[in-house]
Specification:
The protein is an alpha+beta fold. It contains 3 helices and 2 strands, in the order αβαβα. The chain has a two-stranded parallel ribbon with strand order 1-2. Helix 2 links the parallel strand 1 and strand 2 (49-53). Helix 2 (23-40) crosses helix 3. The radius of gyration is 14 Å and the shape is elongated. The two termini are 16 Å apart.
Length: 83
């Protein structure tokens, strides 16, 4: 447990061309997800390697929806502190 506290949590984001053919759209989504992760990072237990695979329905989501979905998924995966 002490060793894990020294290892940072790493996050990878995968957005395929099925989500959007336009790089601008994919990059916008990636920026929104990065911002949401930054906001949730204090709640995430240290030492995790997370892979986020974006589904095509995410293209319609705004920041608040992305943040909410990420928080729910991380809680369900028991990655958040206090869950």
């Amino acid at each position: 447990e002490v060793l894990n506290a020294l290892v940072p949590t790493r996050v990878g984001i995968s957005i395929g061309k099925k989500v959007s053919k336009q790089a601008v759209e994919r990059n916008r989504l990636k920026r929104l997800i990065r911002a949401a992760i930054r906001e949730l990072l204090p709640k995430i237990k240290p030492g995790w390697d997370l892979a986020i695979v974006v589904k095509p329905t995410a293209i319609k989501c705004n920041y608040r929806q992305i943040l909410q979905q990420l928080e729910q998924l991380l809680a369900r995966a028991e990655v958040l502190d206090g869950h």
